[in-house]
Amino acid sequence: MSDALPGPLRQYADRHGLDSASLQAALDWQVLFWSGEQQAADRERWRRWLNADAEHRQAWDAVARMAGTLGTLSPQVARRTLERPSSVGRRRALGALAAVGVGSMLMLAGARGGFWQKAMADYRCARGEQQRFRLEDGSSLILNTASAVSVDFGQDRRRISLAPESEVALDTRSSTLKKAGPLSLALPAALLNVQGAWLTARDLGHGAGTVGVLAGGAQLVTAYPRQAAVTLNAGQQVHFDPDGLSVTPLSRQRALAWTRGVLQADRWRLADFLDELSRYRDGLLYCDDEVADLIVSGAYPLKDTDYVLESLARALPVAIHYRTPWLVRVAAV
Predict the structure, then answer these.
(1) 122, 151 Cβ separation under 8 angstroms
(2) Is 32 a member of any domain?
(3) In this structure, how many other beta carbons lie within 10 angstroms of the beta carbon of residue 240?
(4) Which of 33, 95, 121, 309 has the maximum number of C-beta atoms within 10 A of its C-beta?
(5) pLDDT at res. 320
(6) Residues 113, 96: contact at Cβ < 8 Å?
(7) Is the pTM of this model over 0.85?
(8) How far is CA 64 from CA 23, 67, 116, 256, in A?
């Protein structure tokens, strides 16, 4: 699969049997049509490409569905974003927009559970917010941006289910229902058994997740049969995915930073920093490849992501370009 395709599109192509080169070509054609710069000769070349191979038509149909899902915003977004015809960063932006279209189609079709799980959850938090809740058993729950959980407390069970791509901090030390047995925290690809513990948990999507234990202990069982159960003690964190799991020391300050409304970076790549920051704001935030490897460190307030971007412009040789309030490009000065 071509490295030019963003991850969500690679997975979409794999699931639907699309040829990667054809999908990339179809995206490039859509770029041209959205730009408003196509000529009659371009239309003829597109027709010849479309009719040359059944895989071309299949890929074009998929891209057309994405464009339709994005609706009336797509042409405006494309015209403002895709200013430099040779820009790899520009293609990445289109890929991200197309991925939004793919995600929307999948959610509407019921192929993904995250949207509906969050919509139907007992406790949820909007993008860019952190919310605190007291559960009926006395446990304390903090939800991070765009996160949700469902709670099932009965006579002999206590279960909290984390929606896909959600993040929580859970403190069960003040629970008044300890006699009901351990509380279980279910991630999409793992199950935690906890009692009298304080921990953080995040689903990273694609079968991956992280758990950090601040106090007490927990036992983690993943959905992957070849991975043994892991007992975590205070001061430990685990990262797991389909390829394996690893237990490392926990940085308490870093684990709790988001609960204080802070994004803490320690020598992160700018591209990775922007990916994380984008969790806390609506729209599309991306950078050009030439600045992607710049290093970012510091603590940044999540309540004002525009201020964070201004701080980056003061600290790094970058400029922040607002195409619209929800479409932001970070480029070299």
Answers:
(1) yes
(2) yes
(3) 24
(4) 95
(5) 96
(6) no
(7) no
(8) 11, 5, 25, 43
